[in-house]
Write a structure and sequence with these properties.
Length: 108
């Protein structure tokens, strides 16, 4: 039976104002996604508000912007997952075997 993993990401795009951006620490999602994918898990992305996911700017620079994050951003299908995350009311948590909270601000 295929295991199902729910990956929770944040929608928060800034700390205390628009001049202080934040968001998903992309490699924290891509590393876990890769591990779950290698084990044949079916995965879903969910965020508190659903919809598009902002990226933490610091996570998109050396040394944090690694090959898994670069590959994700170069893949239109994966980027579509980031741009269209599910909202909590679209998810039945009982249908998942695990919930993974990614890095980034305010995921929980």
């Amino acid at each position: 039976m295929t295991k199902r993993v729910l990956n929770v990401v944040t929608n928060v795009g800034h700390y205390d104002g628009p001049s202080h951006p934040t968001g998903l620490w992309l490699s924290e999602l891509t590393h876990a996604w890769h591990v779950f994918e290698e084990r044949g898990c079916e995965q879903t992305l969910v965020s508190p508000a659903g919809g598009a996911e902002p990226f933490e700017p610091r996570a998109l620079r050396f040394p944090n912007y690694d090959k898994t994050a670069k590959a994700w951003r170069a893949d239109p299908e994966r980027m579509a997952l980031i741009e269209n995350t599910a909202a909590p009311d679209q998810i039945d948590p009982s249908q998942y075997d695990a919930i993974y909270f990614t890095g980034g601000q305010a995921a929980m």
